[in-house]
Amino acid sequence: MTMLHLNAFLMGVGHHEAAWRLPESDPFAQTDVAHFTRLARIAERGKLDSLFLADSPVLWNSIGRRPAGTLEPTVLLTALAGATRHIGLIATASTTYNEPFNLARRFASLDHVSGGRAGWNIVTTAGVDAARNFNLDELPAHRDRYERAAEFLEVSLKLWDSWDDDAPLGDKDAGRWGDDSLLYPPRHVGRHFRVAGPLNVPRSPQGYPLLVQAGSSEDGKELAARYAEAVFTAQQTLAEAQGFYRDLKRRAAQFGRDPDSVKILPGIVPAVGATEAEARALEEELDRLIKPEYARAQLATTLRVAPEDLDLDKELPADLPSEDEIQGAKSRYTLIVTLARRERLTVRQLIGRLGGGRGHRTFAGTPEQVADAIEEWYRSGAADGFNIMPPVLPSGLETFVDQVVPILQRRGLFRTEYAGTTLRDHYGLPRPVNQSARRLAAASH
Ligand SMILES: Cc1cc2nc3c(=O)[nH]c(=O)nc-3n(C[C@H](O)[C@H](O)[C@H](O)COP(=O)(O)O)c2cc1C
Asked: What is the reported pTM?
């Protein structure tokens, strides 16, 4: 029987923007490796498929708002690889502000270091502030960023396949360490990149990291359908999630892929309490701690309006840009505007909703109700699994693992033990065939 997949999306002391203000929270935990080690071990105790770190090469907004400044994800995951044995380790890295050789090498290294547990969340990075850290005055256009991302992936795949699995020989008797004829240098020449190769890291335990994608615009979905093995997405309603799920699986099939080889994981921010009232009280306490002026400034940037145009006690202005005019994160922009309009939220209410999970679905309830919510989406063709985004960390992850996971296990929906050793094993995906070796073999027949 297929089972659902659970990924722990770790973010400082929690996804709720005011989590750091709770008495239990360490406001400096975001740079504390012991904090993340504890989180990784809790997630592994719950037999979760993987954990995930988001990233952008920029300091966001005001450091007044919430804990700011994060460790580079592949560095942090290297430390966590040594502190865990089974759980998959997924890092975000940008195709807009890296070179394929650097990143392919870094992820191949993480895959070796972790014994086959590395994953790469491929993002194109929205926002002009990041562009200004990389010799640019403006954000490259959305279409161009995705075009570069596709070529970036082509080059990365060629680099990971530039070593045959059998190239290292270690033949001490013959005095021959490796077989040069089993190296396949890409010699790639394209619009964005010229890369000779081969990579300077042998093919890794998984062949290459699990490829994850997290942009839900048209271009984002096309990239996911072509390459992604797991897709993170923000979906507010069951109907929208089902639509997204169907659409992405159909696109994957159009690229000749088995739709089941792309696992779709919407986010859920679960506020768990012994009773529904207790869960809601936690949510309300967190929302009370939000300082709306910071959140309003960020919302204004996202919506491309002046902060003064957003009246906290009124709905959003009527004349907002269309998605076509947005060059940053298109799908998140549309999600926010649709949510506000559908529910006729005031700016203050919208800020409260976004404060919990930045557009991801928030859900307050008992462990049983959270398990029901997960099961409903899983059984009705909306998800292959979930990105678990606890509002407060570590307590929210602990509650999820100790109280929700056992219910999912009793219902036969989630593993009770890890069956394999690699991240792809957890997601039920095969180790990729080396395409360079396959092409060469086909040509010589
Ligand atoms: C769960 C999740 C995590 C994401 N993490 C990141 C991230 O760490 N860095 C990033 O630049 N974009 C991240 N994104 C993607 C952005 O939200 C946004 O969709 C993307 O930058 C723009 O792509 P789009 O225009 O195709 O939506 C994430 C998306 C989701 C759903």
From this structure: 0.95
